[in-house]
Amino acid sequence: MTQFLAIDIGASSGRHILGRLTDHGIETEEVYRFPNGVKEVDGHLIWDIEALEMHVRRGIEEAMTKSSEIESLSIDTWGVDYVLLKGDEPILPCYAYRDGRTKDVIPEVHERMPFSELYRRTGIQFQPFNTVYQLYADSKAGRLQEATDFEMIPEYLMYRLCGVKSHEYTNATTGGMIGAKTGEYSREIIETLGLPGQLFRPLQQPGTVIGEYKGIKVMLCATHDTGSAVEGIPMDENNPYISSGTWSLLGVKTEKPLTDEASQAANWSNEGGIHYNRYQKNIMGMWLVNNLRSELCPEKSWGDILDEARASTFDETVDANAEGFLAPKSMHEAFLKALSKKPESIGDYFRCAYRSLAISYRDAIQELEHNTGRTYSKLYIVGGGAKNGFLNELTQAATGKEVIALPIEATALGNLSVQAKKSVK
Q: What is the pTM of this model?
C-alpha cells in the first residue's frame, strides 16, 4: 500500500512518521525519533545542522525498511531560521533564533524602515528573531558577501536530499519579508535594507514536487510546522487554535491578512496558510516548564509535577511573554526575578507557570475577538501541550471557551495530508 513520510522537526526533537490513507483518514506509524536542541558555541546559540541532516537520512533509511512503497516525503520545522549557502556549500554556523545577535541591529533596521511600515507591508508581528533582522545582522557581519543563496531550514534539508533549492510560501511568511498583499518577497524591503536581491527566489506552494531521493518524491508541505499543524486539526468550523509545543501559537484562519493599527499594537502576525491566512500570535509555551523541570526536578515525571502543581495554592503569575523568559541562562532565576514572592515548592513554580500561560491565552483570545470582530465558542489545542490536562482546565476556566484538546501529531498529519492530496490528484 502506498505510504507517505512526514519528517517533523521541532526545537527539542524530531520524528519520522509514515502515513497511509484508509477509509477512516490517515493512519500513522512513528518509525524514528531523535533529539534536537540549540548548542552554545563561541558565545552564540546555533543549530547542529549537520546532525539534523544525519538524523533525517537515518530516519528515511529506517522508514524504507518498514515500507517499500513510500511515494513521497516532506520536512517541516520551526520558522524564521535558515542556512546561508555559497554555491552548494553551507556557510556555518547556522544561528538559532534564540541567539541575541540581532539586538544591536534592530534599531538600524527600523531607522531604514520603521516597524510600522514593515508591519503595513508584511503583517508580521515584531519578534527580535524575525528573518529580516537575522539577515540584516548577517549583512552587517559580512556573511552575505559570499552568499549565493539562503534556504529556510526544512528547504535546506530537502535540498541536501534532492539537490534542488526552493523557497516555500508558508515558511517564508514567518520572516517578515513577504508582502501581505502580493504573497512574494517585498523588493522594497530588500532594497531599503541593502540585502542582495539574488538571495530571494520566487516562492513555491505546498504540494510542489521539487525532486527525488532514492526513488521517493521530495515534496514541499507547509514547511513551517504551525502551517502543517493547522492543516492537521479536524475542525468542524473555524475556531481559534493553539499549536502547543515549545511555543504556543494561538490564532485563527482568516480570508486575508489584517494589518490594521490594532493588529500591530497587539503584535499579531499574518502568516501563510494553504489558501487562507493564519492570524496568530506567539506565546512562550512549553519552553517555560521544560526549562524549569530541567533545572529544578529533572528526575520527576510530568505526572508527579502536575499533581504537585494542582495541590499548590501559589497565586502569583508572571508575564509569560516577557523578554526575560526568551533565552535566560537560568529559567529558575528568571521566575524569581519576575515574582514579588519566592515560591516555596516545586508545585508553586509550575502552578505559576501554567496559570501564567492560561492568562496569556485568555488575553490573546480577547484581542483576537476584538480585532476580528467575531466571538468564538471553542478553542482547539494540538501538539504536546494538548496532553496537559491541568493546563487545559486552567485554559478553559480563563478563556471561557470550550477547550477541545486533541493529543495528536497534528503537524505530521498536516504534512502527510498535503502529500496525500497531491497523490490523489
A: 0.91
